[in-house]
Amino acid sequence: MRILIYGINYSPELTGIGKYTGEMGSWLATQGHDVHVVTSVPYYPEWEVHQKYKGKLWHTEIIDGAKVHRVPLYVPKQVSSVKRIIHEFSFILALLPVWFGFLFKKKADVVFCTAPPFHLGFFPLLYSKLRGVPMISHVQDLQVDAAKELGMIKNKAFLNLMFSLERFLLKNSAYVSTISLGMQQKIAAKGIAPKKQILFPNWVDENNIKPLPKEQSLRAEFGLSNTDKVILYSGNLGEKQGLETIIEAAAHYKDRTDVYFLIVGSGGAKEKLEQMVKESGLTRVKFYPLQPYEKLSALLATADVHLVLQKKSAADLVMPSKLTGILAAGGCAIVTAEPGTSLYEVVNQYAMGILTEPESAVALKESIDIAINSDLDIYKKNARSYAEMLLSKKNILKTFENTLLNVSSI
């Protein structure tokens, strides 16, 4: 197949949507498909253009056989709702010459567009209509719902306009794929029939991300002993997660010399968290940058317990991608989720983590107490088993490749 992929994030970004879209593009290319990707220069989660790409404008590179067509965009140093809107629209405007060029190239067999940003879909949709090509809209985050529930956008008229545009894009796509049953239900509530939906969950390479003993972890590199109790949050430091509760919970362990909180990653909330730590005088809350992929198993093995945090209002609007790696590494996670959400139900059903109330430092502290004073082996065993059974990268991508073949033959 000739596959045309649109998305603002792509490899070599290490976390979030770019990681998954990049791995998908690379995998499809290695299966012999002609893969073209239209994306931006990499900037996430640091919110800074990666050094290798600074100063570059429109250009094409080859990544694992996929032809990656990159465009420049505005990347704010301090992320706000307004600046994020400008950021996304700068990307969409920069796409125009690339999109126009594809109109006169060999026709794709299928177009795959990843949201957010949801409004990126207009260019791919217009291409699909002009060239008679089926389009799949892939929803990683329900961006407009999250912006409303998190209070990031409060203007009702503007929100209603965005919801209308979102519905138009979804209804005019040949299919809509997303990553969880909970998100499928929310998409169905927007008027998208189940027969038009595809479940395409995020995955993990269970052969590369695997359980390691503490001796092979990063404890020595981080100056920690094997007897220390380590609570790890790794990933995007953004607003959806409610990460302030980590600092509030850590304050209860201020006098425990054997309890460490590690925060590994980048994002818009990092400076705020660092300031909270400084003001609280917490000496055993440590910040580290994102680690390279080849060190991910060692990083995850560093923790006694992992933190997977979300705000209440983000329930079932986003599915934390960091959880897949934790499960593959045989880790035990404290997961903030409320009953009735798909995240709660799957963690509860398979007994692969400790569930706790979102946005509550008290509840988080109580769960940490349980975790660091309990035998977590059963959670860890169940986590690894779940990853092997249901999150296998090879199995998920092979199934989706067959879906693309069926869609392109319509």
From TrEMBL:
Top-level taxon of origin: Bacteria
Domain called Glycosyl transferase family: residue spans: 217-381
A GO molecular function held by the record: hexosyltransferase activity
Keywords: Transferase
Every Glycosyltransferase subfamily 4-like N-terminal domain range: 15-203
InterPro entries noted in UniProt: Glyco_trans_1, Glyco_trans_4-like_N, Glycosyltransferase_grp1
SUPFAM superfamilies given in the database record: UDP-Glycosyltransferase/glycogen phosphorylase
Listed name of the protein: Glycosyl transferase family 1
Native organism: Flavobacterium subsaxonicum WB 4.1-42 = DSM 21790
